[in-house]
Structure formats: C-alpha cells, structure tokens
From TrEMBL:
It catalyses: Hydrolysis of terminal, non-reducing alpha-D-galactose residues in alpha-D-galactosides, including galactose oligosaccharides, galactomannans and galactolipids. The keyword Signal applies. This is Alpha-galactosidase. GO terms for molecular function: alpha-galactosidase activity. The keyword Disulfide bond applies. GO terms for biological process: carbohydrate metabolic process. Signal peptide: none annotated. SUPFAM superfamilies: (Trans)glycosidases (SSF51445), Glycosyl hydrolase domain (SSF51011). Keywords: Disulfide bond, Glycosidase, Hydrolase, Signal. Residues 328-399 form the Alpha galactosidase C-terminal domain. Its EC number is 3.2.1.22. It comes from the Eukaryota. It comes from Salvia splendens.
Length: 409
C-alpha cells in the first residue's frame, strides 16, 4: 500500500516509551494548534465532515468545456481509481450556461457545449457512482459574464436541485459592492429550501476574511484569490490559508483553491509539496488537471493514499506552519494533530538548494519529560527528527505514540 514516492511518503515512526516515563504529551492546544473556533457555527447540512474531494474544470479547461469532457472525466475518475480514493465530485465551473436567461428567467445550459442539458449529464455522473457540481455567482454575472444568481437565488437553487446537482461553487464577480455577509446567506437559504442536500462552496476570494463568518453559511470558503500554476502563487496561498487554521473543522473548511498538480507550471517536487501541504491543511482536494491524460508522476502524487488519509483524518484539525528557520525562514516544519494520538509533520524545503531539515518535538506540540533522551528508541534517539529534503520538495511523516499505536493495531 505504501507508495514510496520520494516526497509524499508517510513514515510511521513509532515512539517507544518506557513504562515509567510515559510523558510525551500534546501541549495544550491553544499553544500551537489553536482550535478554539473548531466546530462552531457549522452550516449543519451534514456535509463536509472531511474536506471535499473531486475534480473541477477550471484550472485546466477554463471555458473550453462541453458535455463530452465532463462525461469522459467521470469515466476517467472511475477507471483510474481516483473515485475509489475519494475524488467523487465532478464539478463544472464557469461557462456552462448561455449568456442570457430564457424568457421564463431561467438559466439555460449552453446549447452548443451541453446540447443534452445538465440533467442528463447529472444522471450520467450519478450512474457512475459520482456526484456533480455546478457553478454560479453571488453577483449580476459570473466572472465570464454569464448570468449570476444574485436576486435569483431561489429560482436557480430550485433549478439546480431539479437537475440533481450535489455541489455549488459560488463566485464573487459583479457583486455590486454588496456585503458578502448579505449575499452568501441568500443562496444558503435557497439551497436549503430545495430540500436537496447540496454542498455549498463559497468562493469569496478571502476578501472579507470569510473564515470569521462563513462557517455558518458554507461548507468551505476560499481564503485567497485564485491560485496560479506557479511555485510563487502556491506558496503565497499556503501562507495565507495558514492564518485561518483555527477556524476549520468538520462541517466547514478553509479553501486555498483547487489543485494545480499535473498542469505543467511546477516541477513534480513542487507539485508533491503542493499536494502534501494542501492535505495537511485539510484543504479541499479538488483536482484541476485533465484526468483523462495524466502523467505517471501526476497520478502517483494524486493517488498517494497515506497523504490522502492525512487530509481525510476524522479529527479534522487543520495542520499549520509551526516552525521556520534557515535562510529567509525557508526551512519549514508544518504539523498537525491526527486521530489516534498521532501527529503529522511535513519538512518543507522552500529554499533553492537541498538541505537537511530538523523537526523538534517541542515545536510540534509534543512535550518530552526530563527523561526525554531515554524515552525514544528506534529511529528517534533524541526528541527531534532530521531528513534531507531536496529544493522545493517536502517530506511527510506521521508520529504515533507507542501505546496508541499498539491499541490501534
Ligand atoms: C436545512 O438547514 C437545517 C438547519 O441547519 C438542517 O438541519 C437541514 O438538514 C438543512 N437541509 C438541507 C436540505 O440542507
Ligand atoms: C496529453 O498530455 C500531454 C502532455 O502531458 C500533451 O502533450 C498531449 O497533447 C495530451 N493529449 C491529449 C489528448 O490531450
Ligand atoms: C526517568 O526514567 C527512569 C527509568 O527509565 C525512572 O526511574 C525515573 O523516575 C524517571 N524520571 C522522571 C523524572 O520521570
């Protein structure tokens, strides 16, 4: 099961603890892993108990979508095994609709790109055991100037539900300057009123700090502007999303935008880091490449089960940047608690040269007693761990206390 990709490996390091000195404990959560906002005010539609996983058309196809691409993507998610790993949402982004509503005021699927309509497509996607998502905008128009849903919330939600839609990404263009705290709840209520359980993904770009208010409105909320397929964009977005870690939890997640893995603008090392950090941050794992045509490297990154299991861990606490050092702080330790008294950490080398990076237990919320040097044997003879990490790469590890690991086994 363990895929030994070089940078997304999970290594379970069992810490043997002598009976008389079982003192490795997690520090009070407010010291490192502040979870004081965890689980408050969640939307309450029962979804998003773990971060959503799936695919979205935008990052690769932009407006070049049509029903064949969507159907073939659904097929590919199944045949590649991605669906089985949890990637179940097939999300259509902007450009699916005609430029204007019909005479009844309804949105209409683009007749050239989606001649069979969205309902037929939804039926097809459902027949594959997958779920289907669509896109609209909390404004007059979408970003590509299709009709938006502002002031049409109930009609549009009803239409989406009648098609069998399972997920709505709701964008922020042409918003007339109206407060998002007014605009986004309208669609929440409209979706709820349909009686169909629909995942509500807010795409407000982080402008009004949605982590502070969105958990009672959506199942996830974008914390940043759009990702670009570059190392600079990906790292900058990771850092912004990190600030809101205390606000994520089952029911509502911070969303640093969709994955660029496989789109060609970063190296495979950088994509491994992108995927590992997104997983650790409990970000939605929404694939943004053409899954009908992935390289072996892209496939290996996206299907790393250990990394996915970190993302989908039931504890649902967002991992975060806990320690940086080295030139411009580019040796980074990102870490977070997992269920079963485990801790995940990533050694992330954001420098342009390979380096040995050391994670010390105390910087990750693991305390050791005065007996620390006697507590750990095996791989960890001290209370830290070091590994060589290539430039822009990362290495992910999971630590488990011996007692917890034994009782889980
Ligand atoms: C509507 O909202 C209520 C209150 O949060 C919730 O219990 C119910 O499950 C929601 N229904 C749907 C279809 O989302
Ligand atoms: C598949 O991807 C490669 C690049 O990885 C590209 O050159 C090729 O054109 C793609 N094929 C199709 C059918 O899209
Ligand atoms: C340190 O460990 C030894 C045995 O390994 C034990 O006898 C002693 O009490 C421990 N000291 C503390 C402070 O836990």
């Amino acid at each position: 099961m363990a895929k030994s990709t070089r940078n997304c490996v999970r290594l379970t390091v069992i810490l043997y603890v002598y009976a008389a000195a079982v003192t490795a404990t997690v520090l009070p959560s407010d010291q490192i892993y502040d979870t004081s906002k965890y689980g408050i005010l969640q939307l309450g539609n029962g979804l998003a108990q773990t971060p959503q996983m799936g695919w979205n058309s935008w990052n690769f196809f932009r407006c070049g979508i049509h029903e064949t691409v969507i159907r073939e993507t659904a097929d590919a998610l199944v045949t590649t095994g991605l669906a089985k790993l949890g990637y179940v949402y097939v999300n259509i982004d902007d450009c699916w609709s005609e430029l204007v509503r019909n005479s009844e005021g309804d949105m209409v699927p683009d007749s050239k790109a989606f001649p069979s309509g969205i309902k037929a497509l939804a039926d097809y996607v459902h027949s594959k055991g997958l779920k289907i998502g669509i896109y609209s905008d909390a404004g007059l128009y979408t970003c590509q100037v299709r009709p938006g849903s502002l002031k049409h919330e109930n009609d549009d939600a009803t239409l989406f539900a009648s098609w069998g839609i399972d997920y709505l990404k709701y964008d922020n263009c042409f918003n007339l300057g109206i407060d998002p705290k007014e605009r986004y709840p309208l669609m929440r209520d409209a979706l709820n009123a349909t009686g169909r359980t629909i995942f509500y993904s807010l795409c407000e770009w982080g402008l009004d700090d949605p982590a502070l208010w969105a958990s009672k409105i959506g199942n996830s909320w974008r914390t940043t502007k759009d990702i670009k397929d570059t190392w600079e964009s990906m790292t900058a977005i990771a850092d912004i999303n990190d600030k809101w870690a205390a606000y994520a939890g089952p029911g509502g997640w911070n969303d640093p935008d969709m994955l660029e893995v496989g789109n060609g603008g970063m190296t495979n090392q950088e994509y491994r880091s992108h995927f590992s950090i997104w997983a650790l941050m409990k970000a939605p794992l929404i694939i943004g490449c053409d899954v009908r045509n992935m390289t072996a490297e892209t496939y290996e990154i996206l299907t790393n089960e250990e990394v996915i299991s970190v993302n989908q861990d039931p504890l649902g606490v967002q991992g975060r940047k806990v320690y940086t050092y080295g030139p411009d702080g580019c040796y980074q330790i990102w870490a977070g608690p997992l269920s079963g008294e485990r801790t995940v950490f990533v050694l992330w080398n954001r420098c342009s040269e390979a380096a040995t990076i050391t994670a010390k237990w105390d910087t990750m919320g693991l305390e050791s007693s005065t007996n620390a040097s006697h507590e750990y044997v095996s791989l960890c003879s001290t209370n830290s761990f070091s590994a060589k990490v290539e430039a822009h790469a990362s290495e992910m590890f999971v630590l488990a206390l011996a007692a917890a690991a034994a009782s889980a086994a």
